Amino acid sequence: MTQYQVPVAEKKFIGSHILVAILALAVGSLFGPLQAFEHAGWDFYTYLKPLIKSYYQGLTVHGVLNALVWTTFFIMGFLTFNVVFGLKRPLKNIVLNKVGFWMMVVGVLAAAIPILANQATVLFTFYPPLKANPFFYVGLTLVVVGSWVEGWGLFMTYNDWRKENKNERTPFVAFGSLVTALLWQICTLGVAVEILTMLLPWSLGLIDGVDPQLARTYFWFTGHPLVYFWLLPAYISWYAMLPKQAGNGKMFSDSLARLSFWLFLVLSTPIGIHHQYVDPGVPPTWKFLHSMFTFGVFFPSMMTAFTVIASLEHGARKNGGKGALGWIGKLNWSDPSVASQLLAGILFFFGGIGGLANASYNVNLVLHNTAFIPGHFHLTVATAVTLSFIGISYWLVPYLTGRKLWQPKWATIQAWVWFVGMIIFSNSMHVLGLLGAPRRVPLGLAPYVPAEWSGRLFQVGLGGAILFVSGLIYLVVMYKTATNKERVESEVEVPSAEPMQDPALGPAWLDRWAPWIYGALALIVLMYGPVLFEMIRTMALTSPGFRVW
Amino acid sequence: MSAQKMHIDSYERNWMIFSFILLVLFASAVAVAAFGMGIQVPAPEERVDPRTVATDPNSPWSNPGLREIAPGKYDAYILARAVPQWEYLPREITVPVGSRVTFYVTSPDVQHGFMIQNTNANFMVLPGQVSKLAVTFKNEGTYNFICTEFCGAGHGVMYGAIIVTP
After folding, report:
1. Is the predicted pLDDT of residue B1 greater than 70, yes or no?
2. pLDDT digits (tens, 9 = 90+) for A315-373
């Protein structure tokens, strides 16, 4: 059976997303190790002074480029690929999607200028009353609105497909991508309101002050589902692509995979206050309710773990895998795309456990804003997500460019080096956090650091150095692939793990959008309505801005 | 189309039941710790005007420091600030062992954090809000309190100490 071929125009369009994403990762990752080195007491920022003024400017570049730009561009590209490939049709209106893409690019440039000029050293959380140059907020707005426009283009494409295929089930990769795009449309309302009603007019001098507590609440309305915006594209690959690549496995349960995506849509937004357990201005009732729902959103992740592992095992056993765990050795570890994503999944297991600790209302008291938190999200967004995206790029870039992956062996080495570096980095960050080390501090220079931390601080630096090597290998592999003279023989096959059971036999309510969207909105109104209403009612725009970096 | 039923494999069903029970157990543990053992998180205390909180003579933070309200019971009014330099006022507090100290912390400028090492005391400090938390110091020694939220260039040097004397 020959596969549907993504048209050339769409290939180029998707490819431009991946290009911007990798460029952002390249620059952003340059600063990652520099942060880690500061913990170990190796101060490189002194030498960077003419260019980068401080650790915090570097940290802003690292956070914005890696957590926001690399992820958003890669995701919008990958979602577009999945919708076009899954529905077997070109974009309804590629011009609209291109408008969205260019808005995002202009937005990144608009935000990059003040960041590089040290006019927006506010980190990727940009908590007011730290006040950045207006272009920073304009840039962020353009990135968000551009991603909305691209989402609309995907929905319109789906609508056309649906009209022609009234009784068919949406192919899974397209379905998962549309849910992800929808989740993003809903959850970014928080940060849009924060910027448009407060931060932007304030930075332009139209209003004198902001309400920092309200701003944080808007921010985390978006900030937590952002995590699922990052994760769901990786889940799409783990569910419906990886089992095929890893050993010709089939997707264990199509219906439950769909159900888990719906649960993510419904549950990932009304839990954002779990980032604000120790905020002074949020009533504990709401903190507690959000903590209970946070346990709820863990449920679809547990379902995902089962289905993905069962699908992998299915393929491995067909290929002669034996034993309770012995089958893992039969997976196709020599394929760099497989190795990256399996290693990403293994570390995600530990990231999930740490996440449960963070979510636990009062347990969070010993973890909040400690080094445990960056330790945690380097397992999730910087490994589960990033290493999976890297793995996807190992087949997607050859698919889009028609050029062979350069030296797959080096690509596999890259994944393993990342894995090792991240274990060292992240483990020591978790331990330091439990010992009471704060986050966002160059600990090598902090006056209160006890001698007992020094061993762990050294490991942070060591892990950072190893990750740097892995990042370099990735960039070389990508550069050499994009310029490879060796072309792929025919077409690269898109990995597609067929479901074990025909999706058409699954219940029809799994393919209906309205009830789930209404459910998601209702839950948001229920969980955020009263607390936000009260905060807006008592809003005090009394905090003037500060530039103290 | 006829109404189809969802096919769920028996292993998967068991896994989902197990996951559900596990999450209920975790949630219950949190609830018991919160309501049974009283390990609570900060609650709204008071709104203040960050522009005047450090200067208004009627504001306790115009004269930050320790007040003894009863034998062994203290209120500590602490100002966390980034301007003109990154510091807590006062930087140091001395109390005898066994004291119960209720902290009232606010900021006249940007967001800060307040984490007392080797205790469960850890909260955000926001301009416009008062963060309140009570801690009993059962052992003597020096407890550093550290800023845990990025507050500008000097974030990494912002700390103070509670000295618990015999």
Report:
1. no
2. 999 999 899 999 999 999 999 999 999 999 999 999 999 999 999 999 999 999 999 99
Distance, CA of B146 to CA of A423 (rounded, Å): 27
Helix (H, G, I), strand (E, B) or coil at B141: strand
Q: Using an 8 Å CB-CB cutoff, list chain A residues near B2.
A: none
**Residue A229, domain member (yes or no):** yes
3-state secondary structure B45-112: CCECCCCCCCCCCCCHHHCCEEEEEECCEEEEEEEEECCCCCEEECCEEEEECCCEEEEEEEECCCCE
User: CA-to-CA distance for B122 and A19, rounded, in angstroms?
Assistant: 42
- Nearest-Cα residue of chain A relative to residue B145: A448
> Which pLDDT score, from 0 to 100, does residue B6 have?
76
Q: Is residue A1 part of a domain?
A: no
pLDDT > 70? residue B65? yes
pLDDT at B55: 95
The answer to whether residue A544 sits within a structural domain is no
Cβ <8 Å between B12 and A252: yes
- Give the CATH number of the domain where residue A526 resides: 1.20.210.10
Average pLDDT, chain A: 95
**Closest approach of A478 to chain B, Cα-based (Å):** 35
Residues of A with a catalytic annotation lie at: 224, 228, 376-378, 439-440
Domain spanning B60-165: CATH superfamily: Cupredoxins -  blue copper proteins (2.60.40.420)
Touching check for B53 and chain A: CB below 8 Å? Answer: no
Residue ranges of alpha helices (H) inside A360-440 are 372-379, 386-401, 408-435
Model-wide pTM > 0.90: yes
Which residue's entry shows tokens 């912390």? B105
Domain that holds residue A146: 8-537
Q: Give me the residue spans of the domains in chain B.
A: 1-40, 60-165
Chain B contact present for A268, CB below 8 A: no
Residues of A in Cβ contact (< 8 Å) with B34 = 288, 361-362
